Structure formats: C-alpha cells, structure tokens
C-alpha cells in the first residue's frame, strides 16, 4: 500500500500497526513503526531511520531548518527532515508526502525478497 495524497486521504497518518515502511519504488527499508509518532501534519512522521544509509539528505533551498530526503538506495524523492522539530528536544522529524509502502510485522523478509 503506497500513498501520495494532498487532499485529506493520507492513509499512513494515523496508521500505527507494527511493521516497517519501505521505499515504494525499490523496497529499501526506511523506517520502523517504532519510530513513528502522532503529529499534526497530514503526513506520517518518524524520528529515525532503520539503517544509517536508509535515506540521503541535501539542504533545502531557502529553508535552513529543513533537508530534502530521498531513498538511500534508488534516490526516489521521499519528503523532508525538519531539524530539531521532533517529539523530544534535539530530535528531528521526518515527514513524507509520497513514496512509502508499509510491510506488516512478520512479512518483512518475504516482501523484501520480492523486490
């Protein structure tokens, strides 16, 4: 199940089942449901990635508090990281407006082998 919604139909905003979120394009592991938290934005918010290389980041033009984020494997555009805007002091907040797929807990290995 992938999402890309700007019209109120965001399927992962209030989705808190155990599992992982992967790149919808290549299937690379990005975030665990354990790092997801409720946030007022219409998009899912995470505090950390699964792997150090899960995402690539580059500065957002004219927004020093934000970084553009893409998949660390295929380069697919994912969203933004907002620096020092997480649920705890000093944590960043990852917000994704497109290109995520959810894999329920227990299905991770079989799903990633199919990529």
TrEMBL record:
<dbReference type="GO" id="GO:0033743">
    <property type="term" value="F:peptide-methionine (R)-S-oxide reductase activity"/>
</dbReference>
<comment type="similarity">
    <text>Belongs to the MsrB Met sulfoxide reductase family.</text>
</comment>
<dbReference type="InterPro" id="IPR052150">
    <property type="entry name" value="MsrB_Met_sulfoxide_reductase"/>
</dbReference>
<keyword id="KW-0391">Immunity</keyword>
<feature type="domain" description="MsrB">
    <location>
        <begin position="1"/>
        <end position="105"/>
    </location>
</feature>
<dbReference type="GO" id="GO:0005737">
    <property type="term" value="C:cytoplasm"/>
</dbReference>
<dbReference type="InterPro" id="IPR011057">
    <property type="entry name" value="Mss4-like_sf"/>
</dbReference>
<dbReference type="InterPro" id="IPR002579">
    <property type="entry name" value="Met_Sox_Rdtase_MsrB_dom"/>
</dbReference>
<dbReference type="GO" id="GO:0003779">
    <property type="term" value="F:actin binding"/>
</dbReference>
<dbReference type="Pfam" id="PF01641">
    <property type="entry name" value="SelR"/>
</dbReference>
<protein>
    <recommendedName>
        <fullName>Methionine-R-sulfoxide reductase B1</fullName>
        <ecNumber>1.8.4.12</ecNumber>
        <ecNumber>1.8.4.14</ecNumber>
    </recommendedName>
</protein>
<dbReference type="GO" id="GO:0045087">
    <property type="term" value="P:innate immune response"/>
</dbReference>
<dbReference type="GO" id="GO:0008270">
    <property type="term" value="F:zinc ion binding"/>
</dbReference>
<dbReference type="GO" id="GO:0030041">
    <property type="term" value="P:actin filament polymerization"/>
</dbReference>
<keyword id="KW-0399">Innate immunity</keyword>
<dbReference type="GO" id="GO:0015629">
    <property type="term" value="C:actin cytoskeleton"/>
</dbReference>
<keyword id="KW-0712">Selenocysteine</keyword>
<keyword id="KW-0206">Cytoskeleton</keyword>
<keyword id="KW-0963">Cytoplasm</keyword>
<comment type="function">
    <text>Methionine-sulfoxide reductase that specifically reduces methionine (R)-sulfoxide back to methionine. While in many cases, methionine oxidation is the result of random oxidation following oxidative stress, methionine oxidation is also a post-translational modification that takes place on specific residue. Acts as a regulator of actin assembly by reducing methionine (R)-sulfoxide mediated by MICALs (MICAL1, MICAL2 or MICAL3) on actin, thereby promoting filament repolymerization. Plays a role in innate immunity by reducing oxidized actin, leading to actin repolymerization in macrophages.</text>
</comment>
<keyword id="KW-0560">Oxidoreductase</keyword>
<dbReference type="GO" id="GO:0005634">
    <property type="term" value="C:nucleus"/>
</dbReference>
<dbReference type="GO" id="GO:0030091">
    <property type="term" value="P:protein repair"/>
</dbReference>
<keyword id="KW-0862">Zinc</keyword>
<keyword id="KW-0479">Metal-binding</keyword>
<dbReference type="GO" id="GO:0033745">
    <property type="term" value="F:L-methionine-(R)-S-oxide reductase activity"/>
</dbReference>
<keyword id="KW-0539">Nucleus</keyword>
């Amino acid at each position: 199940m992938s999402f890309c919604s700007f019209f109120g139909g965001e399927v992962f905003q209030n989705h808190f089942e155990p599992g992982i979120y992967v790149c919808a394009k290549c299937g690379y592991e990005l975030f665990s449901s354990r790092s997801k938290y409720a946030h007022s934005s219409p998009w899912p918010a995470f505090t950390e990635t699964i792997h150090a290389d899960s995402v690539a980041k580059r500065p957002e033009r004219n927004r020093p508090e934000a970084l553009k984020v893409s998949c660390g494997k295929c380069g697919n555009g994912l969203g933004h990281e907002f620096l020092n805007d997480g649920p705890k002091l000093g944590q960043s907040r990852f917000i994704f407006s497109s290109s995520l797929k959810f894999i329920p807990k227990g299905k991770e290995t079989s799903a990633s082998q199919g990529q």
